[in-house]
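Structure tokens please, single chain.
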Amino acid sequence: MDSWTRRTFLATSAAATAVAARSYSSIQGAAERLRIGVIGCGGMGTAHMRALMKMRDSDNVDILAVCDVYEKRLQRAVELTGAKPHKDYRRLLEDRNIDYVVIATPEHWHYQMIMDAAEAGKHIYCEKPMTQTVEQARRVVARIEKTGVKMQVGVQGMSDDSYETAQKYVKAGVLGDVVIAQIDYSRNYRDDFWTGAPDPDVRPGENLDWKAWLGPAPRRPFDPDRFLHWRRYWDYSSGIASDLFIHRITRIIKALDLTFPERGAACGGKWHFRQSPAEVPDTFNIMLDYPGGPTVLLISSMANDAPVDHVLRGHKATLQFTRTGFVIRPQSLYAKEMKEIVHQKTGAEDITLHHRNLIRAIRFGGPLKCDCRLGYYGVVACAMGVESFRRQKYMRWDARRERIVPA
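Here you go.
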């Protein structure tokens, strides 16, 4: 934790602790309106706000406060929601009337905001990935379990029931021994990858607090590309791994009831956008071995979007995920012993459903679709690939110390 973050946390921890019990105890049941604070009002934050605004009457929720360090986005959020604006998220957390917060900031801020929100007694919806590092994820799990707040990780695909249903078939032995799982998430771009339109209104020092945006990240002079397209830089993201693969590996982990990989390796590079200032690769692939199997393959490129089948390969049958659910087809050796099975999914990869699941957990204590433990497993899987790629080494999981180390 850098000195700025340490000072600010110590300065507010006492106040946060004082309001924790009051905020948490304000939720008295299904009849009580849940009041929400949104931290981060960019593209993803706006998507959350739009979804929550539509849920105001049906789910008895309200957006009470919004926060962003860029005044243009903050003002748009106020116009959309009518909520109270904050430039400092700590002031939002001090509001005893807020029951849960949405964290939709760049990845490098997730950890500290989760820790502070939990200490303040706020329930949490945090966009994926849960944290940047394995150590941060381990600490988040400990904090969430200690405080007892509910936290949903924003892998919205887990609100599709296909993966928990697939797990039942896997555990029942329908597929036999699952030896390989493969899944992809690819895109294509014409000029450069993970870029968008420029924003000529950004004026650091006037309407953007660049120091606050950097927060726990290394100090750097303002760079509009880093601000607008932060997924391209290691300081704030690991690109394909943390923004795309986290969606995919979480599905596989759930379907196969996995925890931590035993070892892993990754490869890739900037094979098409060679002149891009982006630090992260445009093509990236991870291979993970889980204890006793299977091997999991994660495939992606930002220069070719041809899809790859999402499958669990067992020695008796193959389960293929589809847009409508999944289908299980027997291997030819077992064709006479079993029939094809088709599952029509309920739910979907949907922000509204994911929030609704968190709301039910807050009000009635039900299970979360993507809790902090599942978030932790996903962070470890993706981080193992990133560590392998950046260090050019084969990596393994040290279960005793809960760390990724060279094999």
